[in-house]
Each structure stands twice: as C-alpha cells, then as structure tokens.
From TrEMBL:
Entry protein name: Reverse transcriptase zinc-binding domain-containing protein
Domain Reverse transcriptase zinc-binding: 2-58
Origin species: Deinandra increscens subsp. villosa
Length: 158
C-alpha cells in the first residue's frame, strides 16, 4: 500500500461523525447500529471495511484496478500501515485517488441513507468511484492522455 497516505486516511476516518464516535463524545444518537446493515455498531472500521456493502465495493474496486498493483487488495490495509515494496510514485498516486474516491463514496452513501433515506445500488456506487477518481486524476494530471473508456478498463501503463 502506498506509504504516504495511510496514516492520513486513518486520521480522517477516525474523526468522521459515525454513531459510535458521536456517542463517545456524549452526543445522543438514535442507534449505535450501522445504518446500512443494521447488524453491528457503526464504527469507522465497520463502515469502511467490515460492512457487507463496503466489503463488496472494495472487492469490486480491487478487481477493477488493484489487480495491477498487487495480487489482492485487502481492505484492512486502509487501517493499518502495510509497507508495499513495489510501490512507485505513479502507483501511489492512482491508489491514493481510488482509495479517496471509494472512502468518499462509502461516506456519501451512508449519509444519503441516514439523511435522505436513499439507498443506492452497488452499481451506482461503482460508477461513482470510477467517475470521481477519473475526475480527480484528470484534475491533478491534465496532460495525462487517458480517456474514460481506458479508465474504466484500468488498462494503461503506470
Ligand atoms: Zn454495516
């Protein structure tokens, strides 16, 4: 895993107002349970890795792009410092953008359910991750000549 951003991400995620984080600050929450699966307390680790929705999204995202970075992407890497000896600058950049888009999509999905009672399909979440990450890559690397179709296939030289 890219060495630069893991601790940053862990910090961001740990500060999100999940139900368990709110409760630990003395704020009353309607329920401690994860609003998505309603089965386990909504900790950041559950919401972003253990929850069936997160786990499925990560595995699809992993098949989509991380197959080029490592044989299998383990979502626990998000919350741990796991050094990746084969890391390069561009690889770190793509991995970071895709992780960012996936974390953002999971948090937005959770908020849409909590505040708008809107439940997104897995297909919607996947399209969101791909389009967000594409926009962010394009914003950071304007001269990088990869189109939407190539991005969706994640088939290019890094
Ligand atoms: Zn859940």
């Amino acid at each position: 895993m890219a060495k630069v951003n893991i601790s940053f991400w862990r910090t961001v995620i740990e500060r999100l107002p999940t139900r368990t984080n709110l409760a630990s600050r003395g704020i009353t929450v309607p329920s401690m349970l994860c609003p998505i699966c309603q089965e386990l307390p909504e900790t950041e680790s559950h919401l972003f890795t253990g929850c069936p929705t997160a786990s499925l999204l990560w595995s699809i995202v992993g098949q989509w792009c991380f197959k080029q970075c490592r044989p299998f992407f383990d979502v626990k890497d998000l919350l741990l410092d796991v050094p990746d000896r084969s890391s390069t600058k561009s690889k770190e950049f793509f991995v970071d953008v895709v992780i960012r888009a996936t974390v953002w999509t999971l948090w937005k999905n959770r908020n849409q359910l909590v505040f708008q009672e809107r439940r997104n399909s897995m297909q919607t979440l996947i399209v969101e991750v791909k389009s967000l990450s594409f926009l962010w890559v394009k914003a950071r690397a304007r001269h990088w000549d990869v189109g939407w179709d190539e991005w969706c296939r994640f088939n290019f030289v890094m």
